[in-house]
Amino acid sequence: MSMGGAHLSKPISEGLSDWRRTAAAASDAGALGGMIDAVARHGEDRIGAWQVLDGAATLAQAETLVARRKWRDLALAGVPVGIKDIFDTADFVTSYGSEIYAAHRPAADAAAVATLRRAGAILPGKTVTTEFAYWKAGKTRNPHDLGHSPGGSSAGSAAAVAAGMVPLAIGSQTAASTIRPASYCGIVGFKPSLHRISLAGVKGLAGSMDTVGCFARSVADVAVLAAVLAGRPDWAVSAGQGRAPSLRLVAVPEWDLAAPWMRDSIRRIAGHLGECGAQVQTGRAASRFADLAGVQSRLMAAEAARDLAAEASRCRHRLSAPLRALIELGEAMPAAQQDADCAQRAEALAHIARLFDGADILMAPSALDEAPTYGDGTGSPELSRAWTLLGLPSISLPAGRGPKGLPFGIQLAAPPGEDIRLLDAARWIETHLPDPAQHDRA
After folding, report:
1. Which of 94, 96, 233, 406 is most exposed, with the fewest beta carbons within 10 Å of its own?
2. Which segments constitute the Amidase domain (predicted)?
3. 153 a catalytic residue
4. Do 337 and 389 lie in a common domain?
């Protein structure tokens, strides 16, 4: 059930700078709050991106904002930002995608939410998440075709940005929960290095891998959002001076799971980038990097059993069957297996330079295929598991459309801590991607 091109041909926001100008021109708090509320509701009856959408709260935030001295000078002055419903918010119910917390009202904002408010952002509400950011999907549909999934677990955040409801949104990633929805929805999704953005006040799934993710329509916009959240203004400014990056397409076993058209498309895009000046090499991952997706899967189960111990203890019967299965797998996992998996991760990190083999950036598909149908779930995380396990900063850029006419993305990654390198490379690649009309696989 496609929405048709009319709904997405002209996004509500052409860029973050447009939002800033519009907000700065607002005559009063009522005009600002009303504008944001109206935009956030654009297409919501069809897409279902929001768990909570509150016009009165939006107006109250606008009133608070315009009362601040020199509010228009703030980094995100008047910009609406979607907040995934695993981030605590004092003025909205925070349910973590679970009926267990249907009426839960946190006492304080998560650190990331507080940071956004200080920067002048206005939060229209909470975007839909899968249950505890794991598997069970919510109501959200893909804005490009309502019969398909927007991905998960950051479903609402990705869909809200893709549909033009908000220019920015935050989500999270433990396996592929930022990269995959960005790919399915045709937007930019950025997962920084571990611990660069605070997780205080965020419901955890697997503490050693949980990471805040950022969504926008361009690399420049996602860099501004991430820079605010991380307290790193240098992330928002290009340091690469237009230098073409060196790229490596490194084949791991998960590559073989991708649809043939996807593998062909990524190779063709890499060839085009090489013609534009990027250095491109190909190769297979060394054996120490071969089973990292399996390591991530097992460690996520073990950590979920610990991080969701309260819910598993008090109301296990109210958890979905897949989440119960994950927790039970973690509870039963032998200590020796956990130790071996942690050791394999440490071994891979100690030799991370071998994975890059002199290249600046790794490149791969963002997902195995286009978005699955809504009834088939939120899609496979296999192509992001290993990079998330290792804490590599990664980003998905929209790269065209597949055989069904749905978006797909390319995934880029840099070594841990090299977020600026990644953002600079992504800026260059974004401007040199081939014309989608020549490379779409419709």
Report:
1. 233
2. 45-423
3. yes
4. no
